[in-house]
Design a protein that fits this description.
The chain is an alpha+beta fold and 423 residues long. It has four domains: 93 residues, 3-Layer(aba) Sandwich (Rossmann fold); 68 residues, 2-Layer Sandwich (Dna Ligase, domain 1); 128 residues, 2-Layer Sandwich (D-amino Acid Aminotransferase, Chain A, domain 1), CATH 3.30.470.20; 95 residues, Phosphoribosylglycinamide synthetase, C-terminal domain (Glycinamide Ribonucleotide Synthetase, Chain A, domain 4, Alpha-Beta Complex), CATH 3.90.600.10. It is 29% helix and 27% strand. It contains 13 helices and 23 strands. Strand 16 and strand 17 form a beta hairpin. Helix 7 packs antiparallel against helix 8. The radius of gyration is 20 Å and the shape is globular. It starts with a strand and ends with a helix.
Length: 423
């Protein structure tokens, strides 16, 4: 099979690595890819948003399967473009990807179909939002309705912070048109868990659980980021939680989308909060999480191509997902200053250390090949992942492996998975 991966981040490197393990894949392409993906696939300089060029390339190379990685092209209908051209594609159509593309849509869907989530109100007028806050209980959560690179969620502890948040999202347009409409939501407490699920429009199968660390600094301080590290499995995602979510969240969401005429095929990412009153949905994404993919895919035993094809063909019920007993931890190496201002173009040393080291992986996120070698080319540069018999061992291994990599401006959190040490 000839496979084309659309995307160029850490998630897409993990997908490319997993595809390269498949006995069925003979040729692997990525658009645009990155320096790490280029070691596994032929990278082509086509934007993830250029549906016309992507489809033309797929036709030219006689691609058998396209895999759309990021949220933006899915919400913009890039999967639709492949389908309309008769090319098999893994990823939801735009009318289903709206579950991530609009927070207001997903909240309304949960309310309509009785899927447990936080109470909320939606606003497209800043004055109305500010008036509502005067009567609201603090802390409170503000969410940009549209896509904001995983950063459009503000947790506000005081009324002043909340008012400033409305100004940031709706008036200053920090995230552009994503903040034209906002969702104001009750603040939930508990442990966060991410569960990625394969979907075929009717059936849904959850993968191993994971937990992301969104804040830039240790102790969950600082600004929201795309994710600074993650671990799998979550010790807080018990059999009872799994049973509840399968019945009240996962299948209910699939059925709700089908009832709305928005059959969901691809990856449904369920961000959950394990509250004192039971699991609640924090948010949905319509694709693999980044960096969740970097811990879940190395633990997955199945051939990913088999599973993706079963999703496309509506035969997911015939697949049994299997995951390694070993745990995995990923620590993101970022450019100092991320998620705001940072320099790039620094040479990265130590990447070869990972070759032939069983249970250690380095996934490229923001890298570029140059005459000087591989250099930093983004806020999140690399995801260093390691396995271990336990989460504590995997965490120690991952942090040991971060020392093998050096580049100027290197920054990371030192407490990824710290909660698991305290178990």
């Amino acid at each position: 099979m000839k496979v084309l991966i659309v995307g160029g981040g850490g998630r897409e490197h993990a997908i490319a690595w997993k595809c390269s393990q498949s006995k069925r894949v003979t040729e692997l392409y990525a658009a645009p890819g990155n320096a790490g993906i280029a070691q596994l696939a032929t990278c082509v300089d086509i934007s993830v948003m250029d549906a016309e060029k992507l489809v033309a390339f797929a036709k030219e190379k006689e691609i058998d399967l396209a895999i759309v990685g990021p949220d933006d092209p899915l919400v913009a209908g890039v999967a639709d473009a492949f389908m309309d051209a008769g090319i098999r594609v893994f990823g939801p159509r735009a009318n289903a990807a709206i579950i991530e593309g609009s927070k207001a849509f997903s909240k309304d869907l949960m309310k309509k179909y009785g899927i447990p989530s936080a109470a909320y109100e939606t606003f497209d007028n800043a004055d109305a939002a500010l008036a509502y806050l005067e009567t609201a209980k603090m802390p409170i959560v503000l969410k940009a309705d549209g896509l904001a690179l995983g950063k459009g969620v503000l947790i506000c502890n005081t009324l002043e912070e909340a008012k400033e948040g409305v100004k940031t999202l709706m008036l200053d347009k920090q995230f552009g048109s994503a903040g034209d409409k906002i969702v104001i939501e009750e603040f939930m407490t508990g442990r966060e868990v991410s569960v990625l699920c394969f979907c075929d429009g009717t059936h849904i199968k959850p993968m191993a659980s994971a937990q992301d660390h969104k804040r830039a600094k240790d102790g969950d301080q600082g600004l929201n980021t795309g994710g600074m590290g993650t671990f799998s499995p979550s010790p807080f995602y018990t059999d009872d939680v799994d049973k509840f979510c399968k019945e009240h969240v996962y299948q209910k969401t699939m059925d709700a989308m089908k009832a709305e005429g928005r059959d969901f095929t691809g990856i449904l990412f369920c961000g959950l909060m394990l509250t004192p009153d039971g699991p609640r949905v924090l948010e949905y994404n319509a694709r693999f999480g980044d960096p969740e993919a970097q811990v879940v895919l190395p633990r997955m035993k199945n051939d990913i191509i088999d599973v993706m094809e079963a999703c496309i063909d509506g035969k997911l019920d015939e697949v049994e997902l299997e995951f390694d007993e070993q745990a995995a931890v990923c620590v993101v190496l970022a450019s100092d200053g991320y998620p705001e201002h940072y320099d790039k173009g620094f040479v990265i040393d130590g990447l070869d250390t990972f070759k032939d080291k069983e249970g250690y992986y380095v996934f490229h996120a923001g890298t570029k090949q140059t005459d000087k070698g591989i250099v930093t080319n983004g806020g999140r540069v690399l995801g260093v992942t390691a396995k271990g018999k336990t989460l504590v061992e995997a965490r120690a291994n991952a942090y040991k492996a971060t020392e093998w990599i050096q580049f100027e401006n290197k920054y990371m959190r030192h407490d990824i998975g710290k909660a698991i040490d305290e178990q």
